[in-house]
């Protein structure tokens, strides 16, 4: 996937893998609820032709599938794409219930980390994900790549690494 050039120093990302059963709403096939394998109900939207084709291709959408999913402007909901059969355990470097978040750390307070994610092009809205856990935070680095584990509707930090862009005068509220 090619990302168009933009003015920000990083490419923002927030995506992951969830296994669950999608149930469309009565009003709209593309909007519904994903019930994950741990029983968590998550608002969801089908966003690509492959996801919508699940209903036409006989993959039996009311059975558990592994979905690649994205946060956009509502962290409490997911956009679902690229479904695979339930036996799938990985998508690239991610396992089921893991997410990759590339964004700007805006606050670190105890074991709560706020990460701002926005659209790379256009004037789409940004949103903030709240992650749980600790990492080797360095205030001069604002941009980080996190690998997180979904636990219900919470996200726990597994790993964190600095992205290349550095600020000479960081001011992160609540930074440690």
Summarize the structure.
By secondary structure, this protein is mainly β. Helix content is 5%, strand content 48%.
Describe the secondary-structure layout.
Elements: E1 13-24, E2 31-36, E3 41-46, H1 49-57, E4 65-70, E5 77-85, E6 90-91, E7 94-95, E8 98-109, E9 112-117, E10 127-132, E11 143-151, E12 154-162
Kindly report the name of the CATH homologous superfamily of the domain at 15-94: Nucleic acid-binding proteins
For the record, what CATH class of the domain at 15-94 applies?
Mainly Beta
Secondary structure tally, helices: 1
Which residue ranges are poorly predicted, with pLDDT under 50 across at least 5 consecutive positions? 1-6, 166-176
What's the alpha carbon Rg, rounded to whole Å? Answer: 17 Å
Distance N to C terminus: 36 Å
Mean pLDDT: 79
What does this structure look like?
With 176 residues, this protein is mainly β. The chain has a domain at 15-94: Nucleic acid-binding proteins (OB fold (Dihydrolipoamide Acetyltransferase, E2P)). Helices cover 5% and strands 48% of the residues. The chain contains 1 helix and 12 strands, in the order βββαβββββββββ. It has one helix at 49-57; strands spanning 13-24, 31-36, 41-46, 65-70, 77-85, 90-91, 94-95, 98-109, 112-117, 127-132, 143-151, 154-162. The strands form 2 sheets. Strands 1-2-3-5-4 form a 5-stranded mixed barrel. Strands 6-7 form a two-stranded antiparallel ribbon. β1 (13-24) and β2 (31-36) form a beta hairpin. The longest helix has 9 residues, at 49-57. It is globular, with a radius of gyration of 17 Å.
